[in-house]
Amino acid sequence: MSSAHLSGGKINIARVQEYARKHLFALLDKIDGTKEIFADAVVGPVLGLVSNKAMFREHNVKNVVQLQGGNVMTSGAKNVVFIISTKLCYIDWVAEYVHNEVKRGNGQEFHIFFVPKITFLCKKRLEDRGVLGTFGNNIEELPLYLFPIDNDLMSMEISSTFKEFHLGNDPTTLHQTAEGLLMLQSLFGAIPRITGIGPAAQRVADFVKRLAVEQSCCQNPASSSIVPSQIDQLILLDRSVDLLTPLATQLTYEGLIDEIFGIHNTTVKLPAEHFSSSNETSTNFSPEVKAIILNSGEELFAEIRDKNFSAVGPALSKKAKLISSQFQERHGDKTVQEMKQFVSRLPYMMANKQSLAYHTTIAELVMKETDSSHFLKALETEQELMNGIDTDKVHPYIEDCIDRKQPLTKVLRLVCMQALTNSGLRPKVLEYYKREILQTYGFQHVLTLSNLEQSGLLRVQQNQRQYTVLRKALRLTVEDNSEVSPTDISYVHSVYAPLSIRLVQHLVRPNGPRALQDVIGLLPSPAFDEIQPSLSGSPISSQASGDSPRVVLVFFLGGCTFAEISALRFLSQQEDTDTNVEFVIGTTKLINGKTFIESLSEPLTSEHI
Amino acid sequence: MSVLLTADWCSVGKNEYYRKFEVYDMEWTSIFNMDNVIVTSCSFGGPLAIRRDPKKLVKVQGSGKPTISIFTASGEFVSSIMLSKPVIHVGWSTSEDLICIEDDGSVSSYDLFGNHLHTFSISEEVRMTKVIEAKVFNSASGTGVAVLTSTYRFFLVNSIKDPKTRTLPGVPGLNAPPSSWAVIARDRETKILVARERELYFLSPNDSPVSVVPEFSDRLSSVVEMAVSVNSNQIGLFTDKGRMWIGSSDLHTKYCEVDTSHAYRPLQLAWCGSDGVVGVWDETLLLVTQKGDTLTYPCDSRVHVVPEVDCARVISNTTHEILQSVPSVLQKILRINSVHPGLYLLEASRHFQRRSHKADEYIRLVKDSLPSAVESCIEAAGYEFSPDNQKMFIRAAQFGKGFVPNLDPEPYVQMCRVLRVLNAVRNPKLSLPITHVQLRKMTTKGLLERLIHRRHYFIATEICKHLKLPPAEGSSHILAEWAFYKVAQAKQDREQVAREIASKLGKAPGISYKEIALRANHYGHTQLAIRLMDYEPRAREQVPLLLDLGQEVPALLKAMESGDTDLIYTVLLKMHSKISLKEFYLKIRNYPLAKSLYIKYCFENNNKELEDIYAQESDFNAQAALHLREAYEPKNSGIRETLLANAQQSYKNIRNDFMAGACDEQRKLIKFQRNLEDKFHIEFYGLSLHDTVEKLLLKGELKLADSLRTEFKVPDRRYWWLRILAHGKNRDWLGLEKFSKDKKSPIGYEPFVDVCWDNNEKQEAQKYMNRVKDDLKVEYYTKIGMLEQAAQTAFEQKDARALDALRSRCGASDKQVLEQINTFLTQLMSKK
């Protein structure tokens, strides 16, 4: 039994979920007796993506608790199972907990599962903290790399990839990505073609190739049945190639919900007061908060999630009319047969009505924000910058924002956008911004600024007008595009077509990478295109039979936004494009401008924070 | 033809035939006198070990030290082993290792090529009391050793792989060497049968001796020789009266008892398969079948007999022969007056080849039983050693097959394949004279093991290919064994060996270079092991082994190549613990990835080493960041300025003037804040400049705020904002008004309106409306609810659209305004 919203796509993402479940429960079933799970802040939420309460109960798990520092109450289960990622601070908390419990002498047994695998440093830390012996043989690895989000979307839920690789030269999570891709290949067959842009992409491609060789030689090819390829191409996109897109305000429905309220693990939490207290009592959060799960399992949401917000209103009202007309039908003269049919459709109609009510409310909440002057002003500024208007000078609106001490992330987002659209700021302008920010928001943000500079988001002007060239060559700004019935991906930001997706449009073509190179020699690193030899030695024919679309997995290294996903879905739906493709999306994390900037922030801790 | 086929057959008793045929002409020629040596071999066509018979007097040749020579089954010299002491007994293990037992109870094993493998000692007691007799036996649990000491006690080791000595109970009244004894290893239970003259005892480790009395027709005085069949189920006893008793090995059942009319004890007594016992005397070979029939072969010279599961090998000075009971299917087809369908098919096939029409007649004779005829021909082919005979049967089978529709071709194909393998290994070069039955018994895997043991790697892989074995079971395994052998060789150039191995093994599935490297290291060829690890594709195998071999830098390179940071950390921390810090830094500085990871590790572990590393690398940016982080640690709040000064210096070193300036400014600010705190006794420390100024403004400390502003060059715009907002917060409307008249506002007067409006001071807000920019006036009038003025202004600006927008803003109470707007609009229209 897998979640319905995961299947039905071009490849069956539910299999990723099954894979994860199989491993999780196999490990849990090895433990006799009742269990209590402590999961860390990273792993805990994603466990919900692969399993649910009822399933845990079936496997004798009493409850799942988030691991925290300090004293935690326990439910008194016979076994305590820690499921943690490889962050060392979590191990300290585990050790603290274990020491306390051992002192209390409840005779519990302790188990620890590392996601996705145990590292040397973890083991060492366990040893240093004096609990390695306590766990003894109860240390396991839970090889979960990718978590299923939707029927065309998987995420690794690692937010540090970009920072670690581009700031700290640490490829750990890239290697993890490669391992995840190998896991995917074991489920969906070898991917014959790997294309990509950016240093991180090149790394991952190299790791994938290497790991494939390692795997093929310790495996007996005869015994393991070779899975036929279901994915024709992999496109690896390094976030550093396109830093601008995540900063731009997303204007799709789902993107806006994420921008304004934040979507975490497919769930958005909204103030409950706006929702009439329905008979549904599925939430177990505090009563002020209403948690709503957003995925394609809900028909209405699947319909409107990728639309530009200005098209959502009409769509909702159309739906409302449809539903009310459906309900009206019953007043017509009906035979018993027809009545019966109507009744059988009733639960479905009720569900639709409910979801309509929810989304109307959400849309109203979103509207409240999008109608506010500061939202409009900021959007206007963004679009000016995208169009290359006045990017050279200190922008008055940004100045205003600083003067009025608007949230720092908003300011940084705009400043970085200006730096990128101007292909670097003039030194004077950059210094002015930095000074203003330090004076207004405090000196403790000095390292955040330096991180942004190091990662290329904030930079001084170079000779090349990179953005100007790219904007022309790749048509990054499109003015006359309808938001309601779009003809181009630029609808997701109303003016700006995400660079990343434009690159994808090129890369899916047979000769794309080379052609791209000819058009623009300005990308931070060259695109690559490699045909993977299959395990049997001969290259797998990538040419899918004429009419069925090719399946392309686009994997974002460093995160992607909902707007980018919407743009790819939009491309999948286009039938008249010269390249008939269906996209499946993988990412290290789902991000937006705010979370992206935050992932690079490093406020100096002071006694005031 | 059929006469020739049965030429080597001898009929024994009723309807039973034995045959003796030559498999090899011995290569050895008069190297030694067969009379003076003992030949030992093992089952499944094992090689021959030859040593001098200590009971015979011969002229001393060579060094006089005891020597064991090993020959192949076809008599080709392989190796010789020089021993320091005489051996009591020599035998072979199941894996064709030579086992030598010395009188002190030490058991040594050697491989075919005379290389010493290992030695163990049976027990201290045995060492003290000395071994006088010993036997090597093979059982289901491997190869074992039984010894008899000079105190007439037996000791048993069931498996030489895992030597555990068991002491057997003493035989009652045994005060002289027993007249004969044998080891019977059956069903995981090993017993020794001992004859003390006429009394027979079974000895087993945990029991007291059991006396047995087999049924003898004649009164016996002493059992002088005994032989156990290869399968341990039968036993033959030879008495001093020249009688042979054959029965089950538990002595419960007697098959026969025959008077051999030989007065002397045989030189050797051995089983021929499990069909009969062969006794060797000086010039005769006597076979006694289970049914009690006898057959005598005369011999020109002394022969040695090697028992096999289905035959006996007879080795003489010139030939190597096989003696066996003719397999029943051959008997049925080829015996005189046979009417077996197989024979008819054979005849048919022969006539067919001679293009004789008789072929048809023969075929018709067996029409109904053709399948069974084909089957027997296939089977018969398997029992033949001569390729010509094999071909004859195979041709017949093939011929017959054509007349049977839907016959399963598999047995035929399989037999052809097997025959090809058998003929190949029977070749004198390989000299494995095994029968088809033996091959089935030892399995292909066993055969491959033997070939590997004899270093016939090439033919072994060819056999794998021929039999289509999966690489993991077959060729990969052989290649790995070859590599194991290769790395054990000391003398060769390691580079060449490594390359040779890699070129042969390539990326064959199931090959573990790690295993090979470990083996090389085991033999002390560390460099070769390191070189070999280059070929191991799995970094997770490669890196730890290289570390174990003390190769940190190669391990680091491999780890970095793999990109698996976990491995890199493993190597780094190992290196760190092994060498001095200085050396460590020097080493890792060449590898940016390793360096960054180590820095991260230090960072996460709050390691003090970071400072040193940054200093060595002159990475002032990172150094400055380090100082900054330190400065803002709560415990350092007292010395923050000093640490900021450090950071400032670092930034200066890389000429990052902006950052250096920022640090400097921050230091100034802190100083300022401390002064302020002294003055006002409220907290300023930690606030941003902006917030500090605001706090001062809110306190009405305009002068101080002003001085900060000049000191830190706060831009006018922001300062005005601060002033306006502060006045608003303090609800100091008078002050605000005064401020507005002070100078021309760099940010316009809209913020003045905003701040008043936000504080619900409509009156105050109106004061600034005149100074609002013209193009914003309509908007601002609307904002503060002065619709009339808004309409008026819009009209003055001839802005019809703004008027339109205004109209929609009008509520029920604004009727007048609405009318006004409409008038304005019509006026505007008419003007156009």
Automatic annotation (TrEMBL), chain A:
<dbReference type="Pfam" id="PF00995">
    <property type="entry name" value="Sec1"/>
</dbReference>
<dbReference type="InterPro" id="IPR043155">
    <property type="entry name" value="VPS33_dom3b"/>
</dbReference>
<keyword id="KW-0472">Membrane</keyword>
<dbReference type="InterPro" id="IPR001619">
    <property type="entry name" value="Sec1-like"/>
</dbReference>
<dbReference type="InterPro" id="IPR036045">
    <property type="entry name" value="Sec1-like_sf"/>
</dbReference>
<protein>
    <recommendedName>
        <fullName>Vacuolar protein sorting-associated protein 33A</fullName>
    </recommendedName>
</protein>
<dbReference type="GO" id="GO:0016192">
    <property type="term" value="P:vesicle-mediated transport"/>
</dbReference>
<dbReference type="GO" id="GO:0012505">
    <property type="term" value="C:endomembrane system"/>
</dbReference>
<dbReference type="InterPro" id="IPR027482">
    <property type="entry name" value="Sec1-like_dom2"/>
</dbReference>
<comment type="similarity">
    <text>Belongs to the STXBP/unc-18/SEC1 family.</text>
</comment>
<dbReference type="InterPro" id="IPR043127">
    <property type="entry name" value="Sec-1-like_dom3a"/>
</dbReference>
<dbReference type="InterPro" id="IPR043154">
    <property type="entry name" value="Sec-1-like_dom1"/>
</dbReference>
From TrEMBL, chain B:
<feature type="domain" description="Vps16 C-terminal">
    <location>
        <begin position="511"/>
        <end position="822"/>
    </location>
</feature>
<dbReference type="Pfam" id="PF04841">
    <property type="entry name" value="Vps16_N"/>
</dbReference>
<dbReference type="GO" id="GO:0031902">
    <property type="term" value="C:late endosome membrane"/>
</dbReference>
<dbReference type="Pfam" id="PF04840">
    <property type="entry name" value="Vps16_C"/>
</dbReference>
<dbReference type="InterPro" id="IPR016534">
    <property type="entry name" value="VPS16"/>
</dbReference>
<keyword id="KW-0653">Protein transport</keyword>
<dbReference type="InterPro" id="IPR036322">
    <property type="entry name" value="WD40_repeat_dom_sf"/>
</dbReference>
<dbReference type="GO" id="GO:0030897">
    <property type="term" value="C:HOPS complex"/>
</dbReference>
<dbReference type="GO" id="GO:0006886">
    <property type="term" value="P:intracellular protein transport"/>
</dbReference>
<dbReference type="InterPro" id="IPR006925">
    <property type="entry name" value="Vps16_C"/>
</dbReference>
<dbReference type="InterPro" id="IPR006926">
    <property type="entry name" value="Vps16_N"/>
</dbReference>
<protein>
    <recommendedName>
        <fullName>Vacuolar protein sorting-associated protein 16 homolog</fullName>
    </recommendedName>
</protein>
<dbReference type="GO" id="GO:0033263">
    <property type="term" value="C:CORVET complex"/>
</dbReference>
<dbReference type="GO" id="GO:0016197">
    <property type="term" value="P:endosomal transport"/>
</dbReference>
<comment type="similarity">
    <text>Belongs to the VPS16 family.</text>
</comment>
<keyword id="KW-0967">Endosome</keyword>
<dbReference type="GO" id="GO:0005765">
    <property type="term" value="C:lysosomal membrane"/>
</dbReference>
<keyword id="KW-0813">Transport</keyword>
<feature type="domain" description="Vps16 N-terminal">
    <location>
        <begin position="6"/>
        <end position="413"/>
    </location>
</feature>
<keyword id="KW-0472">Membrane</keyword>
<dbReference type="InterPro" id="IPR038132">
    <property type="entry name" value="Vps16_C_sf"/>
</dbReference>
<dbReference type="GO" id="GO:0003779">
    <property type="term" value="F:actin binding"/>
</dbReference>
